[in-house]
Amino acid sequence: MVFSSVIGLSALIAAGAHHGAWPHGWPLAAQVALGLLTAEFAAYWAHRFAHEWPWLWDFHAIHHGVTRLWCVNSGRFHFVDALKSVLPGVAILALAGAPAEVMAWLSALTGYIGLMTHTNAAMRFGPLSFVFNTPELHRWHHSMKLSEGNRNYGENLSVWDLLFGTYFNEARRPPARSGVREALPTRLSGQLAYPFHRFAGRMAARRALRQP
Ligand SMILES: [Zn+2]
Predict the structure, then answer these.
(1) Residues with Cβ < 8 Å from 37, sequence gap 6 or more?
(2) Residue ranges per structural domain of the chain
(3) 113 alpha carbon to ligand 1 midpoint, in Å?
(4) How far apart are CA 97 and CA 134, in angstroms?
(5) From CA 198, how far away is CA 159, in angstroms rounded?
(6) Residue 36: predicted pLDDT
(7) Mean pLDDT, residues 164-185 taken together
(8) What's the rounded Cα separation, in Å, for the pair 79 and 163?
(9) pLDDT surpasses 50 at 105
């Protein structure tokens, strides 16, 4: 829902902005491919930082908290985490002057690929995994083992993982169980408050360390 709202908003901005460096003369498919590559670059780093920076991980941990993948998990994000993932990419595209049609295609593709990658199916996708994020790649990403889970950050594409050295896909079966090591609250209200409580705890610990 957050994703669709932000995409919708950015489409409105882009519709009124005929400036920017966007190649409006290209065929639509090429514009969508360019939009996807650009948005994925931002989404890749937003996702990677969410795994590597503890205060961002506390928000993203909510998404990784499920013990089994199924397609509904594709919408299970803390709202701060969702905004952090989507806003940078759509802001870049809107500023570049990408048309509403491209934004709509990106929204549809992201929704479809998100449902696919979180589906609970053990499938092999062969060479497709070298271009797109697939259920095969994303099962590794949801592994509790950090050497497997801190990989495959692409939301729709795997090309940035290949380029930045975080692509991971081995010939053995990916883990069927996913999850996180920390104990997360089970209620929605607790999960929404969890990252803020953790942040307050970190700040208190830092203050205590500074005291003589
Ligand atoms: Zn993740």
Answers:
(1) 157, 159
(2) 2-210
(3) 15
(4) 29
(5) 33
(6) 96
(7) 88
(8) 29
(9) yes
pLDDT in tens, 62-81: 999 888 887 777 788 999 99
Reported for 25-29, long-range contacts at CB under 8 A and 24+ positions apart, including other chains, are 28/101, 28/102, 28/105
Q: What is the pLDDT of residue 69?
A: 83
**Distance from Cα 83 to the centre of ligand 1, integer Å:** 14
Separation between Cα atoms, residue 173 and residue 165, nearest integer Å? 21
The residue assigned the tokens 């497709």 is 128
Q: How many A from CA of 10 to the centre of ligand 1?
A: 24
Handedness of CA 76, 80, 82, 84 (dihedral sign): negative
| Encoded amino acid at 84, one letter | K
User: Apex CA 89: angle with CA 86 and CA 93, to 5°?
Assistant: 130
Residue 94 CA to ligand 1 center (angstroms) comes to 25
**3-class DSSP state of 150:** coil
Q: Are 81 and 55 in contact (CB under 8 A)?
A: no
Tell me how far the alpha carbon of residue 145 lies from the centroid of ligand 1, in angstroms.
Answer: 12
Q: What is the pTM of this model?
A: 0.86
